[in-house]
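Case study.
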Amino acid sequence: MKLYRALVVATSLLLLFSSRTSLGAPPTDEEKPNIVFILVDDAGIGDFSTYGCQYGVTPNIDQLANEGMKFTNAYSGNAVCGPSRCVLMTGLHPGHAQRRANQSKDGLLALPTGQMTVAKLLHEAGYATGGFGKWGLGNPGTTGVPEKQGFDTFFGYYDQRHAHDYYTEYLIRNSVRVPITQSGDQSWDDYSATRIADETIQFIEANKDRPFFCYAAWTPPHGAYEIPDNSPYGERSWTETEKNYAAMVALDDTDVGRVMQKLKDLGIDEKTLVVFTSDNGANANFIKRLGSTGQYRGYKRMLYEGGIRAPFIARWPGKIQPGSINDVQTTFVDVLPTIAELIGVPVPAGADGYSILPSLLGRERQVRPTPLYFEIYEPYFQQSVRLADWKGYRTGTRDALELYDLKADPGEANNVAEAHPDIIKEIEAIMTAEHTPSPHYTTPEHRRPAKAKRNKKRQTTSLKDLLDDKE
Ligand SMILES: [Ca+2]
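After joint prediction, the assembly is written out as follows.
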């Protein structure tokens, strides 16, 4: 029997077991936890000391892991901002999701009317819903704005490019511009991340007496690599960009500490599930000196592990075992079904993921019932599949598939495709089945056109293109 089918059979049994054990009476309002979902932008798994950061420490995030559960096989939604956030919000994997690159043939796509989102699910269940930071799934005037996608309030950047400006003249609240007075000295008061973290904390305080969903989609350490004070790393013999980037990771850690302190001061930290993660792997600029993608190959925009491996930590006192480590394979696609189970509502039809609540609550050792599938259309079309410990990767739909054994080779250094034709066939079939064509993107058969058809100008993506981070 093929590995995939064997896995499905084994895990169907597990799911049957889990559905018996995890289903009970739906939680009452009193039992519904608050949810604080902290999503930082472009930080790699190697930026956090609990995951082995080589250049610095993130003590508040370490503490979150020490008091909660740390996932060691977690992935973001995709390898770049918009597509990753689309997976997170909709519960659709990258072969089904609307956004498969930051841009498309039809420009910047906005989430459509009628789209199920995590925020709508929670809003309909009576949660106060607030988002703070970068949205990226619909600009003002479109159907995709957060206040039409389940948020009572959203404060920050709607447009991804606007989010590059940390000393902006305005931020946006529910599609209305909020002027930011710039003193001109690029102080903390002028810095957008300060405002956004302050608003995050104010929302928590304002909603302390009712269930709330706080989506803290903070922008550091995404470029522009600017921060009023890079002093934690100011003395290092690094470039200013590297110092600023590292200081921006440290700022995220400080702000995690501020949120946790507020939850404790309000006496609600025991009824709050806090999740910390990042939307995609680190930018290529930070892999060499800082080791921001840890032991993994690749970086942001690549479907090698370095582009999609994510820190993922969850803390919920009395429910999640402190200091626990979980190796279940999970991606952002699982957030929507997990939250649905958590609040006792049915998983919306069409959702691709699985609830990892049994893992969070320590009820069972889950094994993922289906492979993990990713695709992305920038800088060129790529697909990847994680099937147990196998990792398949290819560009185009007909280019040769690379195969790695992640257990023996987490750095994807040794392509073992030739030795495993059966696994290759299986993964190719999964890639074909999970990829649904989208009218917004053209799917190439090959990364580069055949020689005879190739234009004089070679259609390659240079490292410079990758480093020139436009979104
Ligand atoms: Ca990002």
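Observations recorded in class. Confidence is low (pLDDT under 50) at residues 4-23, 456-461, 464-468. Residues 105 and 440 are 5 Å apart (CA to CA). We will return to this complex in the next lecture.
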